[in-house]
Design a protein that fits this description.
This protein is α+β, with helices and mostly antiparallel strands. Helix content is 44%, strand content 22%. Among the domains are: 149 residues, no CATH class; 81 residues, Pdz3 Domain, CATH 2.30.42; 82 residues, Pdz3 Domain (Roll).
Amino acid sequence: MSILHNIFFFIVAIGVLVTFHEFGHYWVARKLGVKVLRFSVGFGKPLLTWRRKNDSDHVEYAIAAIPLGGYVKMLDEREGNVPDEELHRAFNRQPVLTRSLIVFAGPAFNFILAVFLYWLVFVVGTTAQRPLLGEPQAESVAAQAGFSDKDEILQVGGSEVVSWNTFRIALIDHGLDGGQLDIKVRDADGFENVRSLQLGETRVLEDDTDIVSKLGFSMWQPRLPAEIGGVMEDGAASKAGLARGDLIRTINATDVYEWREIVEQVRASPNKYMKFTVDRDGQLLDFDVFPASKKSGDEEVGYIGAYQNIPDEVRDEIMVELEYGLIESIPKAAVKTWDMSLLTLRVLWKMVTGEASLDNISGPITIAQYAGVTATIGFTTFVGFLAIISVSLGVLNLLPIPMLDGGHLFYYLIEIIKGGPVSETFEVRGQQIGVMILALLMMIALFNDFQRLLQ
């Protein structure tokens, strides 16, 4: 997957989310009679500007060079002279409730967008991995709780689980505080049981280790022949010449019979040459494969960017189709947005209190990578990714940090309590603090991004 591919879908994602956020400010401001001067998507030098015909306010619309945000510029005495006849339309002259509604509208529109995007995912439907567990790692928390091969997760802490992804999110949501976590499963014989996961003092986000593997869980893998179902572009398998349909016979002169044997040997050989002998249309061919390396918990593991061939009857067993009706999807989307908003807030609070690692913060590089990956997987996956980022933007912008929408709302709350606006000195000091906080968060995010790249 090329860097340009990731950058393109990153710009698409940020463009959609920023435009919707700023449109919230713009739309509410105009509805409440405040004059808007400019609506810009992006910062810096405008690349494209235009004005709409029949617009008495002559609002300037712009697309700027730096696609990492945007802004709505309104008529304001603090930013220049305002003609007497337009003073009533200046933002700073509006009642505190009007100003609050305009500021709140940006994050609110992010939540509205998230509800729509989740609704779209539910209506269009998606194919997801069924939450089937493999044999847990020996002596892990999962093994001690009695989980066994091919257990299907039904509920985590009372929350319904319908896919592997919802299982992962539910583990984070209900495991943030440690303690005991009850998980309802259906075993391989069809009987339903509740298994108690004893987390104790474990904090599931105390580092950036994958939560599922950290607790000893793994995805159930059917026993299938060692046949390649496909290779990823620019992966080690593709570079070596391996192709879809190749049946792997030996690795380093050792016979292999199942796909899981390949996975085990590759994971144990990061950055080490391996000799693959494959059966391609009845002809035995040798390939030198050099597995790449990535972090998994505290260890380095190898991977080659190849996936197994899964027959249709097996795929039907391990995959699930998730699709809902037009009306049924509305409350589901609203609940999903609410749940993800609360989870985001809780994770942020855990970071503030030190119970969750700052390693979990991601910056633009990681977001760009996820944008590219989800776009490659499919439309609904990319839309679901947009919904998660939209929720995050909504929550982050409501935090009481100066320079963010939440910081302005905090000023207005003080204004309501004291009966007058905060002093200019107080506001300037707040902006300085806000800039420092945001700069620190960006540095942490970029540091984490580069650490992940190096790993």
